[in-house]
Every structure is written in structure tokens, then in C-alpha cells.
Write a structure and sequence with these properties.
alpha+beta, Ubiquitin-like (UB roll), Fumarate Reductase Iron-sulfur Protein, Chain B, domain 2, 2 domains, 10 helices, 18% strand, elongated
Length: 242
């Protein structure tokens, strides 16, 4: 692999819950270099105290998500050549989440909102019952399938302006999960889920900016899922169910 002699000027956020700042590092620029490669090089060669998350390195787990030049991205799949500006990069922890240290965000609230949105499956059958038949081309199955590939990386949550304005808002990931379960014919927890998504912090807070759909690495569309929940909540309200 041919290497370039160019030097990247990389600003990396360093700090913890008490505060922090961008620290500048000079990193050799290489061909086919990813943002995760840059962060790893800094930690191994310049500053072993730098904290960050990663796991699979191949765009499957989503754990390496960070803000790159102000945009949330999976750093393992983001190539430097596509985002660098005048040989400069800025790498920060995920927006809308508290910082634990450096580039590591605390995702406790993100996952807590999944629970608040009733994002867990409530089944009626046990392992001893026959498997319930599902038609793969039914409208509800297709709606659920369109929303089901979320891997909890938090990119949509970090990109959401409404979460920034209203920290109580459940957020696109939790509501997208609720939409997938609303369309699961086997689920029996629909009333409690309906109450959750129609509550003050629920789907009606969404301004349809579609940042979540724009930046989702798995090309999901939480904005469309939330629109479906809005229609469902409106029909339930007219029917006196909420």
C-alpha cells in the first residue's frame, strides 16, 4: 500500500464529565485510511491515555460511532479522503449523550428510552406452543421488516435536533423500535406501547427534519416510522383508546 507523506491536523476532544477541549495531533496520512485508523494511531503512537470504543472494525457493530467534522458517523467505515477538509479533521464524542471520557459517550439514557417506549417484545406463547405463522408479504410484516435492522449505534440519536432541544424526547431509535413492534402480529403489549409513544415525550415531538434517516448507516428511515406512529396515535385518540 503506497503511503502519502501528507500530515493530517486532527483535533480530538479530550476530557470527561467535568469538561474538556479539543487537542491537536499530527497524524501521517495514508491511502485507504479510516477515521478509526486515525484515532487508533493517535492512541498507539502519541497518547496511550486516549479513550474510545470500537469492536468489529468492519461496520457491523456500530460501537465506534463518533462525531466527525460535526456529523455522526461509524468511524470504521468513514474514509479520511471522503471527509477531510484542507487536511484537517475534528473528532468528538457523540452528541446528545453525556461524556464518560474523551470519545466515549454514556449511552445509558439512550437505552433507557427504549424501555420507556416499550421497545421489548411481549409474546403470548411459550416455547412449547406451535410457531405462529407469519405471511412474509403481509403489509404489517413488510412495515416491521423495514424498521428492524437497527443495531443501537446511536447515530440517529446523536443527529436528532429535537433530542438537543428536549432531552426527554424518546428519540428516533426508540420510536423506530416501537414501530417495528406495533407491526408485529404476535405482540400483545400494544396498549402500553401506544400510551408510551403518544405521551408528552413521544412521537409528536418529531419535527420531521429527517436527520436520522440521512445519517443512519443501515439506511433505515426512523422519520417514516415515527410518521406511522403519529397516524396510529391520532386514530387511537379519535377512538378513545388513549
Amino acid at each position: 500500500m503506497q503511503e502519502s507523506t501528507d500530515i493530517l491536523e486532527v483535533g480530538v476532544w479530550r476530557g470527561d464529565v467535568t469538561g474538556g477541549q479539543l487537542v491537536s495531533y499530527q497524524v501521517p496520512r495514508q491511502s485507504s485510511q479510516t477515521i478509526l485508523d486515525v484515532v487508533t494511531w493517535i492512541q498507539r503512537e502519541l497518547d496511550p491515555g486516549l479513550s474510545y470504543r470500537f469492536s468489529c472494525r468492519v461496520g457491523m457493530c456500530g460501537s465506534c460511532a463518533m462525531m466527525v467534522n460535526g456529523i455522526p458517523r461509524w468511524t470504521c467505515r468513514t474514509h479520511v479522503q471522503k471527509v477531510v477538509q484542507d487536511n484537517r479533521l475534528t473528532i468528538e464524542p457523540m452528541r446528545n449523550m453525556p461524556v464518560i471520557k474523551d470519545l466515549v459517550s454514556n449511552m445509558d439514557e439512550f437505552f433507557a428510552k427504549w424501555k420507556l417506549a416499550e421497545g421489548q417484545f411481549h409474546g403470548r406463547k411459550t416455547r412449547y406452543d406451535p410457531i405462529e405463522p407469519l405471511l412474509p408479504d403481509s403489509p404489517r410484516r413488510l412495515a416491521a421488516s423495514a424498521a428492524i435492522e437497527c443495531i443501537n449505534c446511536g447515530i440517529c440519536y446523536a443527529s436528532c435536533d429535537v433530542v438537543s432541544w428536549n432531552p426527554a424526547y424518546l428519540g428516533p431509535a426508540a420510536l423506530n423500535r416501537a414501530w417495528s413492534l406495533v407491526n408485529d402480529e404476535r405482540d400483545i403489549g400494544q396498549q402500553s406501547r401506544l400510551n408510551a409513544i403518544a405521551a408528552d415525550a413521544g412521537c409528536h415531538n418529531c419535527h420531521s427534519h429527517a436527520n436520522c434517516a440521512t445519517y443512519c448507516p443501515n439506511e433505515l428511515n426512523p422519520t417514516a416510522s415515527i410518521a406511522g406512529l403519529k397516524r396510529l396515535a391520532a386514530r387511537a385518540a379519535f377512538a378513545g383508546k388513549i
